[in-house]
Amino acid sequence: MFNKYYNYSIEEFKTLDNSKEIWGMSNTIGEVKNYVVFLEEDNINNLDISFIHNNYPYNVRIIRVLMVDSSKRNSNWHLMAEGFESDLIVLDEKDKKVLYYSPYNETLAAQIDHVLDYKKKLDHEKRINRSSKITIALILINIIMYAITAFFSGNILDSDVRVLIYLGANENTLISSGEYYRLFTSMFLHGGLLHLVLNMYALNALGPAVERAYGKVKYLIIYLIGGIIASISSYLFSGGVSIGASGAIFALLGAVLVLALKARTRGGKEMLKNILSVVAINVFIGFALPNIDNFAHIGGLVGGSIISWALAKKDF
Q1: Selection from 198, 312, 178, 199 nearest residue 247 by Cα
Q2: Catalytic residue of the set 233, 246, 305, 308
Q3: Is 297 a catalytic residue?
Q4: Higher pLDDT, 96 or 82
Q5: How many other C-beta atoms are found inside a 10 Å radius of the C-beta of residue 73?
Q6: Based on the domain organization, do 57 and 141 belong to the same domain?
Q7: SS3 of 307, please?
Q8: Alpha-carbon torsion (100, 120, 209, 277), positive or negative
Q9: pTM of the model
Q10: CA of 234: how far to CAs of 226, 231, 242, 260, 287, in Å?
Q11: Could you give the CA distance from residue 23 to residue 44 in angstroms, rounded to a whole number?
Q12: Which residue range forms the structural domain that includes residue 274?
């Protein structure tokens, strides 16, 4: 970014004892050639500047950027700043922000801040888009179960209902006869490839965000207990065979809804409106289209919201 936006060239510097190479950059403004060198506390006095002054007819200016970790008690950058008052910028590597700059270095300090803000945004976007290990594991379990279902069904696009029941689908008469495990196993079965793909897409979109907000253990509790509550809701209010991860996914949606509610006084009103819109649209689709277990969705949403609200007050 320094090269793209501010016309700097990358430079390589050496220490006086030739123990390591140091990176930096340079640019030319009028008759002045500026060298910006990024240094650590242990090598700020070990920079070889002998070759830098061979830049006739330019005047040379050397600006040291000291990279520190201000959280460390043994950091003595304040003392170092006093020794290099003329051209020094102090940069906190951990928090990625400028802590200090000497007079006449406001422009470069602002440029460094801009680059650091841009990098923080990129890192944040990468974290958002990166699936968590737990989400990946849940997706793999669902895919494996669908592969088993497809194998016994003899069809990769649609699942045989008899196979689904055999593998643990949510079926009222069987649950009433004592097969309560179906309230859990039905969460990992799907009626077709499209059903699986849509649910896994939603899980990948919501899962990492919920894990970051609540942590791994709470995330699993919300997903699994919320999914079981969704299955119980389906058992109580629906008939027929019920399968799919959508109840557990609605539990995650409930967790995000709780986050939005808690953040509504801190600029989260727009987020809350978006979440409520998603919930309303999905509930409408559930009632409007056939073969969608809307009671499981509602049960998962309510269950996930209640569990998330309770877990937000507990530490694991």
Answers
A1: 199
A2: 246
A3: yes
A4: 96
A5: 6
A6: no
A7: helix
A8: positive
A9: 0.61
A10: 12, 5, 7, 27, 14
A11: 13
A12: 133-311
